[in-house]
Amino acid sequence: MNISEPMGRVASQLKKFKEKISYQDILGILMGSFILALSIEVILVPAHILTGGVTGIAIILKFLVGVDIWVWYIGLNIPIFIMGYKFISKRFALYSLIGMLALTLFLRITQNWHLDLGINNLLLSAILGGVLSGLGSGICLRSKGSSGGMDIIAVIISNFWGYNFGSIFFSINLIILGVFLFASNIELTLFSAISMYVSSKVVDNVQTGSNLSKTAMIVSEQCTDIAAEILHNLNRGCTYLAGRGAYTDKTRDIIMVTVARTQLPRLKEIVFQIDSQAFITINETIEVLGKGFKKSGPEF
Fold first, then answer.
1. Predicted confidence band at 218 (pLDDT cuts at 50, 70, 90)?
2. Could you report the per-residue pLDDT of 71-80, keeping only the tens digit for each?
3. Where do the structural domains in the chain lie, given as residue ranges?
4. Mean pLDDT, the chain, as a whole number?
5. In this model, does residue 7 exceed pLDDT 50?
6. What does CATH list as the number for 213-285?
């Protein structure tokens, strides 16, 4: 069997894809880096609360040695960037370099900002710091880049093994918390854990978006009528899948449709008005790309 021709077609198709540099992405990375720097220098460090990743390591070293966070941050990122450039796309490496330099600059600028936010509670500081740091990291990731540090490691792990970013961040941060426990005390370590947990959840929400959709699989004898109502009354496309009953051994169509959460009650109403014996399974869909939903595009 000659496979050279199909392989040649695949290679030709691969050459058509080119990573594009977008100023909107760069602006997003700059904004995310600034928010992250603000959360670190204005909220977390004054409260002696740790943030995650390389920044957290830099904070520990600052507490122990006294050298500024931004100096440690840029030094620790050098080996990570070498690895990131090797395993991830050149655009992601470029964007992450911009993010790292921007975060380093913003950490330097904001380190002497003494803003009185009126927060004298460590728990509130941990939550607010976690929300802002997660928001900053999430904006950078949505902009197809990162602020450097553990974001690069998280993308590599996610690409190879499929784990979500929040889970990767929190797992790495558990190790950092163990180190922080020896440099600080149990109370501040626990508040730092709260901040990191909040940050990991915000990263996932920002990176995937909060508009979760629902995907339904509908088994019915009235598939044609149901599909017509979905198309004309819900204005959603749907797909017929071929199925065969294990008990009856009969073939039948199965409707697959993805709808917004607000459309789900109406979908069920349509299905059961047409066929009260219909069978529906409904799953939560984290992200939907394509016509009628979010615009599709390459990432990382």
1. very high
2. 888 888 887 7
3. 21-208, 213-285
4. 79
5. no
6. 3.30.70.120
The count of residues in the chain is 300
Question: 140 vs 13, which has greater pLDDT?
Answer: 140
Q: Which two tokens stand for residue 102?
A: 């921007």
